[in-house]
Design brief:
The protein is 33% helix and 26% strand. The protein is α/β, with parallel strands linked by helices.
Length: 308
């Protein structure tokens, strides 16, 4: 299931996809050139995009492919410019890529099956600018909206929130009890960094990871929240509905591969996205300042205890 949609914010296909995601209440973002430049001027700030260090559009294209699980490329009669570059980068990085003709008959179910078969959670959408293929914005918005139709279903949203509320209630009631029992048995889930043991709540499912610490008023002192992933990737985090500052540590193969400290709970609008500089297979969130208080840094050894 798609958890996030990324695109470059250019006119045409990019913005059609981003608008479809926002309408479907799907998280969206991506990379855009330095200065938020596009053919019609600066990209509207309502699109939560991060700027690359370079004004070169090629870097934006490469980073959006790199930071996603797969790319959906919507093409016109000719595949040129950034669209063609997306194909080349996806092939070079070995990332799944599906090409769909804007003027052809589109089967959203076939695209959904491709997404499911390749376990794509972060989807990159690319294609021609409006000047290259007039009407590409409307076509892209229609295709991506149809793709996300299930996410737009009122029943699905209601069920998702009910499940999330039930899960949060279960966590609030059962976790303290479970922690007491597990601590007594010496097998409580924990992350050990150097000689510091951090008891953690473990987030495994997409629903759990989407909720995270959002809505909570605090995190228990000296504890954390651990997000587990099936495969290494550039997993990005943001701070919706947060009430306190945190540190974010990306982990892989028994060490810290990146960290962000003192991440603000109210960073302003649009909400920034925090991405690691190296792929990770798990992410640890702790209270702001906890990392510095123990002198943690990139490369420090990490061990997961009591976690399958």
């Amino acid at each position: 299931m798609i958890e996030k949609l990324v695109s470059g914010g250019q006119t045409g296909v990019d913005r059609g996809a981003l608008d479809a995601a926002q309408s479907a209440e799907i998280e969206c973002g991506g990379w855009c050139p330095k200065g938020r430049s596009a053919e019609d001027g600066a990209i509207d700030p309502r699109y939560p995009l991060d700027e690359t260090p370079s004004k070169d559009a090629a870097q934006r294209t490469e980073w959006n492919v790199r930071d996603s699980d797969g790319s959906l490329i919507l093409v016109g009669e000719k595949t040129v410019g950034g669209t063609a570059h997306t194909l080349r980068v996806a092939e070079r990085l070995g990332r799944p890529c599906r090409v769909v003709e804007l003027d052809g008959e589109v089967d959203p179910d076939a695209i959904r099956r491709w997404i499911r078969d390749h376990h794509i959670r972060v989807l990159n959408v690319a294609g021609p600018r409006e000047s290259e293929r007039p009407g590409s914005y409307a076509a892209s918005q229609s295709i991506v909206s149809a793709l996300l139709e299930r996410e737009q279903s009122v029943g699905r949203k209601r069920g998702r929130w009910l499940r999330a509320a039930a899960a949060m209630l279960a966590i609030a009631v059962l976790v303290p009890i479970a922690y007491s029992v597990l601590r007594a048995e010496g097998s409580a889930p924990a992350v050990v960094i150097r000689d510091i043991t951090v008891p953690v709540e473990v987030m495994r499912t997409a629903e759990e990871k989407r909720q995270g610490l959002s809505g909570r008023m605090s995190l228990e002192a000296n504890s954390g929240m651990l997000f587990l992933y099936d495969a290494p990737g550039y997993y990005a985090f943001w701070m919706p509905d947060m009430h306190f500052d945190i540190d974010i540590l990306w982990l892989r193969e028994g060490k810290i591969v990146d960290l962000r400290t003192q991440v603000p709970h109210d960073p302003g609008t649009p909400l920034p996205t925090y991405r690691p500089r190296a792929p990770a297979d798990s992410v640890l969130e702790v209270n702001a300042g906890f990392s510095a208080s123990h002198g943690w840094s990139i490369g420090d050894p990490v061990r997961l205890r009591g976690i399958d």
